[in-house]
Structure formats: C-alpha cells, structure tokens
Automatic annotation (TrEMBL):
This is ABC transporter ATP-binding protein. PROSITE patterns: ABC_TRANSPORTER_1, ABC_TRANSPORTER_2. GO terms for cellular component: membrane. Keywords: ATP-binding, Nucleotide-binding, Transport. The lineage of its organism: Bacteria, Bacillati, Actinomycetota, Actinomycetes, Kitasatosporales. It holds the Pfam family ABC_tran. It comes from Streptomyces longispororuber. SUPFAM superfamilies: P-loop containing nucleoside triphosphate hydrolases.
C-alpha cells in the first residue's frame, strides 16, 4: 500500500466494496441508481470527507501598490506579519468512483472543481479527510506543465517520459501524438518553441500527450473547451476509448453538452460542497435549473 503526501492507494486486495461509512457521510444528494450499485463495482477513487484550504500569503496589501513594491513589503515584514488569508475551496466532499465510469464535475465558477481534481491527482494536500486512489492518476489540464521555451517535439518527448513511457514506446507513438494534436496541420509548428503556439494549440498538445497512454484514473480539466470542433470530437472519441480500457475518467467542463456526451455520472459542486452525485441526466437537469440555463 503506497502513500504520498495527499492520497493513499486503496488496499491492493480490494473486494469491490468501498470503506465502510464513506457513502453515508456524503452530504450531497446521492441518486439511488448510482449508489445502489456501488457495492458491485471496483472502486478506483474514494474521497472521504475531504476539505481543501488554500492559504494566501501577502493578501491585503494596500491597494495601488505595484507587484514589486508589495513583494518587497512582504520580504521586509517576513517573520513579523504571519497573517495569511484562507480560502476554504472544498468542504466535506465524499464520493466513490469506479472502474469504467466517466464522471463529470460541474459547478459555477470558483465552486472547487479544479481544486478537487488537483487533490485527486495528488498535486494538492488535503486539509482534512482522505483521498484513496487505486492506480496512478494523471491530470490532463490546460495548465499542465510544459516548457514554453522548448519545442513542441521536446515537450512531447519529455511529457511522455514524465508519464513513465519508455523511449522506444515514445518513438513508436510520437507521430500519432503529433497527428492527434493537429499541431502540424497548418505548417511545421512542432519544431517551434511552445511560446509561439496559440493557447488553443498548446492546450491541444497537452491533451494529446496526456491521452497518449491508457491511465488508471484520467483527470481532464476543461481540455475539451479548447480547440476547434473537430479536435473536440477527436478528444471525446479518445475519452470514450480510454474508458473502454477500464480506467476511470473525470472531466471538468462548463460545456454541458460535452458532459452529457461523455459522462454517465456527474458530481455537482457549489461553494466547495457536493450538491449532487448521480446519473448525468438527473444531475444536469437540476444543475441547469439552478444556473437558469437550458441545455447547451
Ligand atoms: N492557488 C489558489 N490560491 C488561493 N485560492 C485559490 C487558488 N486556486 C483556487 N482558489 C480558490 O478556490 C476556490 C475554488 O477554485 P477552483 O479553481 O477550484 O474552482 P473551479 O470550480 O474550478 O472554477 P472555474 O469553473 O472558474 O474554473 C475559489 O474560491 C478560488 O478563488
């Protein structure tokens, strides 16, 4: 049983049941046909009463000061001014994800979706509660770290190495990744530094690198919102394929249609709290009533 800073692996000899009492702590509305079958399936991610709190240092500097002045002020005050503002981004969130599920995360701006995804990926510590994962989670975000001064090609190779692919496997898959990204559709851009890419091109490359291999738990943050319609179609097809290979997919998106087309279950977060957890149609209908918008 391996553990890291933020999460733990599920015990290897899992019998398909979630830890006792996890579901019972969910404050959210849990729709019965998801919860009712939970015991029969293999859990891949269990969040147990998770709280995530950001600490913002240097907040509250007098208005009108420039960034450099504010930074200097922070250095001079270091040690004498411990004040840090806190942002309680995720509150008492519990859920269990299973192998083969594609789960959408919806919620209005600032509701805690990206924060929760980063914590599941092991990139953010939890304040309270626990996140257990079975398998290695991979976060495909528009903010995933690629190096702006390196070419697209170097980033593909480094990104694949970082995901644990061997140099031979990378050589095999390289062209496929570049073709999937569509980066070279309008010229030889893959040999140019990433800083010359539009934000859509960069996001497409990030998605293509992350989606190159099957993952046990794949976390996608808004990747489908970027790129043109044909790239979105390719990514949706790839997500369906990744799902077939027994992984669990989490998708954060404001595009309700992408959520409906890709996910069979939706978690709805609001003010950091889980408002609902259930089949896509049921939760999306409630969410759309809440946001006042119809289907998109
Ligand atoms: N690095 C950070 N430091 C401090 N607060 C943060 C940080 N990142 C996010 N927050 C705060 O945490 C809360 C949740 O933000 P988060 O980005 O998770 O929301 P979201 O649901 O993904 O939003 P959006 O739909 O706008 O992308 C917000 O109040 C946000 O201001």
């Amino acid at each position: 049983m391996a553990a890291d800073e933020t999460g733990e692996r599920l015990p290897a000899a899992t019998d398909g049941r979630v830890p006792t009492g996890v579901a019972g702590h969910a404050a959210a509305r849990v729709f019965t046909d998801v919860a009712g079958h939970a015991a029969a399936r293999v859990p891949t991610v269990v969040a147990d009463r998770v709280d995530i709190v950001y600490r913002v240092h240097g907040a509250g500097s007098p208005a009108g000061r420039g960034a450099a002045t504010a930074a200097l002020g922070r250095i001079l005050r270091r040690g004498s001014s411990p004040a840090a503002r806190t942002v309680h981004a995720v509150r008492q969130v519990s859920f269990t994800a299973h192998r083969g599920e594609a789960i959408g995360l919806v919620g209005t701006n600032g509701s805690g979706k990206s924060t929760l995804l980063k914590a599941v990926a092991g990139l953010l510590p939890v304040e309270r509660g626990r996140i257990y994962t079975d398998g290695r989670p991979a976060l495909l975000g528009v903010n995933a770290a690629l190096m702006n001064d390196l070419t697209g090609e170097r980033n593909v190779r480094l990104g694949c190495l970082a995901m644990g692919m061997s140099p031979e496997r990378i050589a095999e898959r390289y062209q496929e990744i570049v073709d999937f990204s569509g980066i070279n559709d309008k010229g030889d851009f893959i040999t140019l530094p990433m800083r010359t890419y539009s934000s859509g091109m960069a996001a497409r490359l990030r998605f293509s690198i992350g989606a190159a291999e099957n993952h046990d738990v794949l976390l996608i943050d808004e990747a489908l919102a970027t790129g043109d319609r044909s790239f979105q179609r390719r990514s949706e097809a790839r997500i369906r394929e990744l799902r077939r290979h027994a992984g669990t997919v989490f998708l954060v998106s404001h595009n309700n249609k992408s959520i409906r087309d890709t996910c069979d279950r939706v978690l709805w977060l609001e003010h950091g709290e889980l408002r609902a957890d259930g089949p896509t149609d049921d939760v999306m209908a409630e969410y759309e009533r809440f946001t006042g918008g119809g289907r998109r």
